[in-house]
Amino acid sequence: MARAFITGATGQDGTYLTEHLHGLGFEVHGLVRAGDPDPANPDLLTVHHGDLTDRPGITALVDEIRPTQIYNLAGLSSVAFCWAEPVLAAEVNGAGAVFLMEAAWRLQERTGDPVAFVQAASAEIFGEAEVFPQTEQTPIRPVNPYGASKAFAHLSAGVYRARGLHASSMILYNHESPLRPPSFVTRKITQGAASIAKGEATELRLGNLDARRDWGWAPDYVAAMALAAAHAQPDDYVIGTGVAHSVRDFVVAAFTAAGVADWERYVVQDPAFYRPVDPTELLADASKARRELGWSPTLDFDQLVARMVAVDLDSADANSARG
Ligand code: GDP
Asked: Does residue 207's CB lie within 6 angstroms of at least one atom of ligand 1?
């Protein structure tokens, strides 16, 4: 029986990955932390309550589940939050990932059954990249605590791969969906545009509008993870669309999708939302994933923005119906 163990199972990616692997016939087990939301799809997985920093607990869980695949999606996912909690970022995103790789490797050694491990790394490991677009060969030079913690986990996947674990690291560019919390700029913008369209808000306060990101559709990114786990050889893969847009472009697309013509009347630039250091542009060259995994994105930028705005317009409707 193919069994998958997903940490961070109730986050955006965990929710989509649970659906995807369930659809592929996997028995899905998810690690859910105290304080996390309940799973959106409780029928599709077995929930295990625990924490990546509880080492004996995680070892016991991995030994009990005996997964054939482990996906490490747990961690502090917000760059902004990691500036506030840099040591926690190192412990959870960095050391937590290594600990899980060690548990996977030991399980494989003990049982003789191969375990495929997938690490959710991030484009933030490249920091202020000087090469555009970035590939798996681009120098790793993070510029914030989030990127540094993810770089450590990414490099550790290479270490465990050399040790005989089928460990792949997915260098994921920003990937968004209606499941994104508004701590990310995309959802903040789509919620803001929808609220303004409904007359429920009069302004949207944002930071740096010139930052450029390669934004993709989150379900495409979890599909890439599953392809990597099933591939004959483990490896590192850059996953992104290859097209970058500015935060301003996102604002324009979202206000247009919400039917608000003059976005400049509503958007206020607020220094409170600027970052101490912020990569100006991140842009993926995913040609290796396209070639070796047969992966490609299914939605482009405008489609992604339109999907998110449509959901937020609907929930604004629901709010006004209730209120
Ligand atoms: P990140 O790329 O993982 O940090 O994803 P975010 O969605 O948090 O931020 C993307 C970009 O949007 C960064 O360059 C931020 O500096 C920029 N940005 C501009 N205004 C805001 C804001 O109000 N909130 C957030 N989260 N980011 C903002």
From this structure: yes
| Atom of ligand 1 minimally distant from the CA of 205 | 23
Strand runs labelled E in 152-281: 166-172, 175-176, 204-206, 212-213, 216-217, 236-239, 245-246, 267-269
Residue 323 reports pLDDT greater than 50: no
pTM over 0.90: yes
Given the residues 16, 102, 124, 160, the one annotated as active site: 124
Q: Give the list of residues 6+ apart from residue 23 with CB closer than 8 angstroms, or none.
A: none
Cα-only R_g, the chain: 20
Kindly state if the Cβ of 213 falls inside 6 Å of ligand 1.
yes
C-beta of 231 in contact with ligand 1 (< 6 A): no
**Can you list the domains of the chain with their CATH numbers?**
3-176+216-239 (3.40.50.720), 185-213+243-281+300-322 (3.90.25.10)
Closest listed residue to residue 197, CA positions, set 243, 289, 261: 261
Active-site residue, 124 included: yes
